[in-house]
Amino acid sequence: MNLERIGLKSIAVFLMLIVYLPVFAVDYTHEIKERKMSFAWKIDGNLLYIKLTAATKGWVGIGFNPSKKMQDADFVLGYVKNGKVYVTDAFGVRAKEHINDTLMEGVNNVTAVKGSEEGKSTTIEFAIPINSGDSADSKIDINGSTTVLLAYGKGQDNFTSLHRFRTIKKVNLSTGRAR
Fold first, then answer.
1. Contact at 8 Å (CB) between 28 and 44?
2. pLDDT, tens digit (0-9, with 9 covering 90-100), for 77-133
3. How far does the chain reach from its first CA to its final CA, in angstroms?
4. In contact, 37 and 55? CB cutoff 8 Å
5. Residue 38 belongs to what domain range?
6. How far, in Å, CA of 179 to CA of 173, rounded?
7. pTM score of the predicted model
8. How many domains would you assign to the chain?
9. What is the domain-level CATH number for residue 96?
10. How far is CA 98 from CA 73, 74, 103, 138, in A?
């Protein structure tokens, strides 16, 4: 009887893995590497799948289309602590400040989240809608020039510590061209 239960539980776990693993198996079509950070992405319908990797044991982040420094940018930041992934969907409210979307009556629409920390490197993967319709998110034009902010933290597992590295890129998300 116990062996039968174990067998049924094993089959159930196996079936769950078959159903849910393809969600995370993303073949990224484009990648930008800048110093010790990479941004890989794939467009799939209305979703933008993103993979951020950086030489830090702290947070990694990306922002889209600021008007001035960080202001008006749509941000996603994440870190891994004790094997658990933490991600925030934020909006640039000032040139040097962003806050969580939900504090602005927005919605956290970051999905398909996973991450890992190996050695001195952190990787976060997730998906966001290209056009969420959320007032706390910017619309992303995948065929035009998108301003992308890339950054990673100094090694602290939180969303408040300052960055160790940051850069700005102009990217055509459809073609992968960057400058």
1. no
2. 999 999 999 999 998 878 778 878 888 888 889 999 999 999 999 999 999 999 888
3. 64
4. yes
5. 28-171
6. 12
7. 0.83
8. 1
9. 2.60.40.1210
10. 8, 9, 11, 13
